[in-house]
Automatic annotation (TrEMBL):
Residues 38-69 are annotated as: Disordered. It comes from the Eukaryota. InterPro entries: Glutathione-S-Trfase_C-like, Glutathione-S-Trfase_C_sf, Glutathione_S-Trfase_N, GST_Omega/HSP26, Thioredoxin-like_sf. This is GST C-terminal domain-containing protein. Residues 174-317 form the GST C-terminal domain. One of its GO terms (cellular component) is cytoplasm. Residues 40-60 have a biased composition (Polar residues).
């Protein structure tokens, strides 16, 4: 939340930092091992070995199916199919907060297709943010054991073909009407979505949406509604364009941001006319949409009404923040586990895992009270522990609970924590948990270091990296510099450079930094003296994700960077962030839509590149 200085200041208030000294909006990801496995089979570079491989092929990552959640979302029912259908044949993997995943959920719910929803791992979400091939996009579907290439539009059309007997159909049987639906679906993707995204970005960074964006979005929405032939796009029945635009309409109408319930709360779609407003209101009444979208009735008036005494973990000697501010901070973080263990009022719904998979013992652990854990285990005889409770103990450093459960349930604790503990402790900088595991009788497996070190590198946890270096554990080090380059600072990279350890890397190091606009990381690599490994995907990624700063960096670096007009034009078309500015930048480089087919596929180099 770099655009929210007010929130940044609040998050460093000692009222929260006493118990969570490293609390920030950017939360560490549990494990990116899956995300980087595509690179593990290739020859990599290290700090001491420089083998340039610019055109490596990278297989798409696997998508684990463990920990599947029955149903869709909290408050979302799983519809049933005809007798004899296999209810487990369709799994949707996505980010429930993403409008792109919500589109697919809406389509499944509307067409009454049975499915199971699986929240994507942080590894998959991280990969999705830098994906350059379709098999890495979220959401994706696992259909009869096979992953279907992702992207909401592709998936919705796949469902049309895979489940022809489920109604209503979202594409018309009339070929002319179907062509019109697809044309306007593409219009939504190309024109409406980039403006919605810009407006929503302003909203979540505490800024008023600029008038140019509101006016532009209004014009686009008015054009769209002029082509609607009924209450919905194709008449009385929902069709593909309605499904694609609905989550974005919903996001603009949320009352979940109380700071916008003031004079600055102009609806970002207020530039659209009456016809659109009627259309939006009708769309948001759809029952299947209500079932897949989060319900949020938070207003500035009722914030803090149910707030009780501040957590026992907050020192009474520290001047407290107003409870309304604490609630806003916690709500903005969206972290259910943190909100529950702090015991402050919040409006974050429990995740589907905590609703459906957590045991009574897990819930006791989440309370943060050892006495409650002992009561549930010894007196109520609730002895089953799940991954979620184990993760909370490690994440929040509950050593006393770990000690207790190791004494009464050693086999169960080892089964759950042998793999989980090193990764989660490293991701959340819990050196005390690592110390407990190594010296307190639990133990750390010999093969646990690689993914744990990657986690520490991603999050800039130098203390954890030092712990692993000095632990005496035989270290297994993979492409750790790739992970370190995901961090927006150079803390981890600098540590590895002076550590004396062999830190390996591949083309993903520069690609990660470029796709996320981490110029400090790019500068570090340029000045490091190490062999730079990259290929033409560098410019494709920067273009697709609207990273003008990265494009400028590569141009000014004078490094020899290849591209083809075909790849760049395709990336510009897919760009949803600063698309016009990106197109203008490339036009300044001499790219336009003219030219022969040979010109489009010929390898070219940035004009400022050294020969």
């Amino acid at each position: 939340m770099s655009g929210a200085p007010e929130l940044d200041g609040l998050l460093h208030h000692p009222c929260l930092s006493l118990y969570f000294p490293s609390i920030s909006i950017s939360q560490p990801s549990p494990s990116l091992l899956t995300a980087m496995k595509a690179e593990s089979g290739t020859t990599v570079n290290s700090l001491s070995t420089n083998h340039h491989q610019p055109n490596q092929q990278h297989p798409s990552p696997t998508h684990p199916e463990e920990n599947l959640v029955s149903g869709a979302l909290p408050r979302t029912r799983t519809t049933t199919t005809a007798p004899g259908d296999d209810h487990s044949e369709l799994i949707l993997v996505g980010d429930r907060t993403s409008p792109f995943s919500q589109r697919t959920l809406f389509a499944l719910q509307e067409r009454k297709i049975a499915y199971r929803f699986q929240e994507a791992t942080d590894a998959q979400k991280s990969l999705d943010a830098t994906a350059t091939i379709p098999t890495q996009y979220l959401p994706f579907i696992i259909y009869r054991g096979t992953a279907v290439a992702g992207g909401s539009v592709n998936l919705i059309q796949f469902l049309e073909d895979a489940f022809p007997d489920h109604h209503p159909r979202l594409l018309s049987n009339d070929l002319i009407e179907r062509a019109r639906e697809r044309l306007w679906s593409d219009y939504i993707r190309q024109y409406a979505v980039p403006l919605f995204v810009r407006a929503l970005r302003a909203r979540v960074t505490f800024h008023r949406c600029d008038s140019t964006t509101i006016a532009g979005l209004g014009k686009v929405l008015n054009n769209y509604c002029e082509s609607c032939i009924g209450p919905f796009f194709s008449g009385d029945q929902l069709s593909l364009p309605d499904i694609l635009i609905a989550p974005f309409v919903f996001q603009t109408r949320l009352s979940a941001f109380p700071r916008l319930a003031t004079a600055a709360s102009t609806l970002v779609d207020s530039g659209a006319g009456t016809r659109y407003q009627d259309y939006a209101n009708q769309l948001l009444k759809c029952q299947s949409l209500k079932e897949v979208l989060p319900k949020n009735d938070v207003t500035i008036e009722n914030l803090g009404i149910q707030i009780q005494a501040m957590s026992r973990r907050i020192s009474p000697s520290v001047p407290p923040l107003p409870p309304e501010i604490i609630t806003q901070i916690i709500d903005e973080l969206g972290d259910y586990e943190l909100a529950e263990t702090l015991e402050v009022a919040h409006h974050i719904p429990p995740t589907s895992a905590w609703l459906e998979l957590a045991t009574p013992l897990d819930q006791a652990i989440l309370s943060g009270r050892l006495a409650r854990v002992i009561e549930v285990y010894a007196e109520e005889k609730e002895t089953r522990l799940s991954t979620w409770g184990a993760r909370v103990m490690v994440r929040f450093g509950y050593i006393a609970m770990l000690d207790y459960l190791l004494s009464v349930e050693p086999e169960q604790l080892h089964r759950l924590c042998d793999d989980l503990l090193p990764d989660v402790a490293s991701a959340w900088e819990r050196v005390n948990v690592l110390e407990w595991a190594l010296h307190g009788g639990f133990g750390i497996r010999a093969d646990a270091s690689e993914s744990a070190i990657n986690e520490a590198s991603i999050n800039g946890h130098v203390a954890v990296l030092e712990w692993w270096k000095n632990s005496g554990v035989a270290l297994k080090i993979g492409n750790v510099m790739d992970y370190a380059s995901l961090e927006s600072t150079t803390i981890s990279l600098e540590w590895w450079a002076r550590s004396g350890l062999e830190g390996k890397y591949s083309r993903m190091a520069l690609l990660n930094a470029t796709n996320q606009g981490h110029l400090k990381v790019l500068d570090w690599w340029l000045n490091s003296g190490l062999q730079l490994v990259y290929d033409k995907e560098i410019l494709v990624g920067a273009t697709k994700y609207g990273k003008l700063e990265s494009l400028e960096w590569w141009f000014k670096s004078k490094l020899k960077v290849a591209y083809t007009i075909f790849d760049i034009e395709e990336a510009i078309e897919d760009c949803t962030n600063r698309q016009l500015e990106v197109h203008g930048w490339w036009k300044h480089q001499g790219i336009d839509q003219a030219g022969s087919a040979i010109d489009w596929t010929e390898t070219k180099f940035l004009a400022n590149s050294q020969a």
